[in-house]
Amino acid sequence: MHSSTQIIPETGVIPRHVAVIMDGNGRWAKARGLPRVAGHKKGVDSVRALVRACGRRGIQFLTLFAFSSENWRRPPDEVSWLMTLFMSLLEREIRNLHRNKVRLRIVGDLTAFEPKLQQLIQNAQALTSTNQGLNLTIAANYGGRWDILQAVRGMLASKPELARQPQLIGEADLSSFLTMADAPEPDLFIRTGGEQRISNFLLWHLAYTELYFTDTLWPDFDEEAFACALHSYRARERRFGRTSEQLRVES
Ligand code: IPE
Ligand code: IPE
Ligand code: MG
Predict the structure, then answer these.
(1) Is residue 38 part of a domain?
(2) Are strands 135-142 and 103-107 parallel, antiparallel or unpaired?
(3) How many structural domains are present in the chain?
(4) Can you give the pTM of this predicted structure?
(5) How confident is the model at residue 250 (pLDDT cuts 50, 70, 90)?
């Protein structure tokens, strides 16, 4: 991982990695007098369109928050509907993703999912693991705190001596055990649906990410809305602790 606090990452006009909290499905449905699940279903079209747009624009990594570790608190019928939707998407869409050279990864505590879903996830990852196109990561039963905790456990299991000498623990010792260790940190974070919070998404990785919030509800988030987010990103000055004057001298 290219850590924003250890080195100054390379940046460009096109973000290498875009991370998205897809929020507002329920409100989209409610505004139309439809059940909340109709919003989730419509939201799938926005996912397809965004995957295509990222491929076209040469974005290398796209990470989507699909289900948080806190979303189990929702009414059981909504949770089970979301699981069914996830399964049917993995079954139906995977060939298309594979054809488009997408490398699919699912991150989160997958042990909570029923065995059939876990199997589908494994198959989908195995099928697309050597693809060279867009790296698409779906965060499912994901929590940023869970990610940091499982990284601490992984690090100590592989290097037990660090527990006795914690002063030797460096950023890279821990970050290499985070779920997205092979991806650059997100350049651009997008949250749709009007809320301005992280909701336990990528806590470690967002240290220097540019944040973009829009009121647009996820099912309405189309290519034009994405272009607005990219436009906003291009106008940012990414200083990573330095001053504007230093940046001008360097460029
Ligand atoms: C986001 O939309 C999708 C998931 C969390 C699965 P919501 O379902 O949170 O929609 P709102 O926020 O209630 O409108
Ligand atoms: C965040 O949305 C999680 C996903 C989009 C998967 P929520 O709608 O669950 O977030 P809160 O509860 O409003 O913070
Ligand atoms: Mg929501």
Answers:
(1) yes
(2) parallel
(3) 1
(4) 0.97
(5) confident
